[in-house]
Design a protein that fits this description.
heterodimer; A: alpha+beta; 13 strands; B: alpha+beta; 9 helices; 27% strand
């Protein structure tokens, strides 16, 4: 944006803030410098003014339009900015509160970090002294670089349904989904969208990293109905949590299988082996882990885990060199 | 803060900012806005010719320059307050504060709650919907609290630590430098006397620890780990491994840092990653079965096949 245009926009904001009356575009052209006072094509001015209005709205400036009286509705539409809608209300933060805000602004590792920075600019302009170097003993950092995140945040905020391509854990081909988004959760460092899947007519949790291509909002704002008793974090946690449903018995060579020993119990030992009992929820997932230990770990029971391990090992052993 | 699109918001914030701080030094203001003093001077020069309709003396924004490069607003042209927070700005700060409020054992929890209440208040309608976004960081509460005390008291700590890459549990004495919550997990950053280097220790992999009486003494020149961009960043001298992943093993590309991922015409992925630990790659690939294989290096592929055959022999001898 050029300096002349920036100057014009600053003057436009000051002008519209200072008026109680709605000012028509023609009046604004007369008052605010920079729109050109020659008889240049009316259309050129209109294009300029439309662009300026949209720039102000993009910044979140509450540009009102209307007529000065109810008897005036035939007249051209006018504009103004209501001071109470524009101005950040008084906010007074104690030094420790300002330090907390400074730490919070540092949480985001990109993505939302620019929004946090511009929020700090406004707080400082409100007279708050924010120290962004403060520490509270622990430094949290959250990655918000997920490409689908921004569009999902906007859809959740607006209460609009979204459409996107989604790959499940095992399919390479994205499938189209239509979802009424309820909320977004970062859990164990990954972002999830929870909502109602229209195609499947059920509550679903989507991992944003598996969204493929753009996320497109559709339908009216505020159309999404969020269940009133929804516990967002619990919904996401329940999908990603693993509750053990069984225990496998495995023979582990001494000095091997440190990762298994951390989660299992030794039930038997001999000079060169220990027998561990390992809790598990998904036999396939456990088999994948145990197969990784090759000859160091032998599954004794149950058969579903042992067979799965043998299948994995055979696939590897028989692979052409 | 230096992109051209940031200039208008900065200009709108500048007058109220200066009003709240009469006689502020230009360099201090520039630092707060994240711009150079030269840029800030250009901004002030632009504002100086802006003002109320009429644009005569008494209408324009007026600034008084003091000694030592200080500046004071003498006429504000009605720009007394900053613009309200946008929904995205409110979300960025409010969700972050709620995240901090949830971290167990974080000092200043009370200040976080107070700041949160005030911000929600000031954000008004922009704060609506922030409840629809939540961030949870896992923190091993007791370990975190104890290590934080050790950090404050500057004491060395003895760790029993599980290294997933080598699948081994080791004993080591470390000099704590920082506690971090990154990518949803908590880490102790410390000088490891065994490795003689700064290392990150994931708290859920610390199987046991003992705070020692001896003082922590990390070398003065020990560099902090740069975690922006990921906790695990393989080094260029780690071995490059190429894996072929069928759809059932695509999660590997999601889960581990990769150098490149290439889609193949048959729906498989070709993934290049670096690993300092061959045993880690062997464990990973053995667990993938038919869904994934090592394309390169060839001797690693042969090692993995030999391991699978050796394991199968045990199963056939056991004849369970």
């Amino acid at each position: 944006m050029g300096a002349r245009r920036t100057e014009r926009l600053v003057n436009l904001v000051i002008c519209l803030l200072s008026t109680r009356q709605f000012l028509t575009a023609a009046r604004i052209r007369d008052i605010v410098p920079g729109y050109g006072d020659d008889d240049r094509a009316h259309e050129a001015f209109q294009r300029m003014f439309e662009r300026d209005k949209s720039d102000l709205r993009d910044l979140g400036i509450p540009l009102e339009s209307g007529h000065n009286s109810v008897f005036d509705t035939d007249a051209e539409i006018g504009y103004r900015i209501a001071r109470r809608d524009y101005e950040l209300p008084e906010i007074d933060l104690a030094p420790d509160e300002a330090a907390a805000v400074g730490l919070a602004a540092r949480l985001w590792q990109s993505g939302l970090s620019s929004a946090a920075t511009s929020a700090l600019v406004k707080l400082r302009a409100a007279g708050v002294d924010v120290d962004t170097r403060s520490v509270l003993g622990v430094e949290p950092i959250v990655d918000a670089t997920e490409p689908a995140l921004a569009a999902c945040l906007e859809a959740v905020r607006g209460g609009r349904a979204v459409r996107f391509g989604y790959r499940t854990a095992n399919s390479g081909q994205p499938e189209p989904r239509e979802v009424e988004p309820w909320g977004i959760v970062s859990w164990r460092g990954r972002w999830y969208l929870a909502g109602h899947d229209r195609g499947r007519q059920a509550r679903r949790v989507f991992r944003l990293s598996r969204v493929s291509g753009p996320v497109t909002a559709f339908g009216p704002e505020g159309a999404v109905q969020v269940p009133p008793d929804l516990d967002l974090v619990a919904t996401v946690a329940s999908v990603t949590a693993e509750v053990p449903t069984g225990a496998a018995t495995v023979r582990v060579r001494k000095a091997a299988g440190a990762g298994l020993r951390r989660v299992g119990q030794i039930v038997e030992n001999s000079a060169d082996h220990d027998v561990l009992s390992l809790p598990y929820s998904d036999p396939e997932a456990l088999a994948e882990r145990l197969a990784g230990y090759a000859a160091d770990v032998v599954v004794l029971a149950p058969a579903e885990v042992r067979d799965a391990v043998v299948r994995l090992l055979r696939a590897r052993a028989e692979e052409p060199a | 803060m230096t992109a051209p699109g940031d200039r208008l918001p900065r200009l709108l914030a500048l007058v109220p900012y200066l009003l709240a701080r009469p006689g502020i030094r230009l360099t201090d203001a520039a630092r707060d806005f994240g711009v150079s003093p030269e840029q800030l001077t250009r901004d002030l020069n632009l504002l100086w010719v802006c003002g109320l309709p009429g644009y005569g003396p008494g209408d324009l924004i007026d600034l008084a320059w003091g000694e030592d490069d200080t500046v004071t607003v003498t006429h504000d042209a009605g720009m007394r307050r900053p613009l309200r927070l946008t929904a995205e700005e409110a979300l960025a700060l409010i969700v972050a504060l709620r995240t901090l409020a949830d971290v167990p054992g974080l000092e200043g929890g009370d200040a976080i709650d107070r700041a949160l209440a005030k911000l929600e208040d000031a954000a008004g309608t922009a704060a609506a919907g922030t409840g629809r976004v939540a961030v949870r960081v896992e923190a091993e509460e007791e370990t975190l609290a104890a290590l934080r005390r050790a950090l404050e008291d500057q004491r060395a700590v003895h760790l029993t630590y599980y290294t997933a890459g080598r699948d081994e549990t080791t004993e080591r004495t470390v000099d704590p430098t920082r506690l971090l919550l990154v990518e949803g997990r908590s880490y102790l950053e410390a000088w490891c006397r065994r490795a003689e280097a700064i290392r990150l220790f994931r708290l859920d992999r610390i199987d046991a620890f003992r705070v020692l009486d001896e003082p922590a003494a990390p070398p003065a020149d020990a560099q902090q780990v740069d975690v922006r961009g990921g906790v695990f960043r393989p080094s260029a001298d780690h071995e490059l491994v190429v894996l072929r992943l069928k759809p059932a093993a695509r999660w590997v590309a999601d889960f581990y840092p990769t150098e490149s991922v290439t889609e193949q015409s048959d729906g498989a992925l070709l993934v290049r990653l670096r690993s300092g630990e061959r045993s880690w790659v062997r464990r990973l690939v053995l667990g993938l079965g038919a869904a994934g294989s090592v394309v390169d290096p060839l001797d690693l592929a042969a090692e993995v096949r030999a391991e699978a055959r050796a394991a199968l022999r045990i199963y056939s001898e056991l004849a369970l």
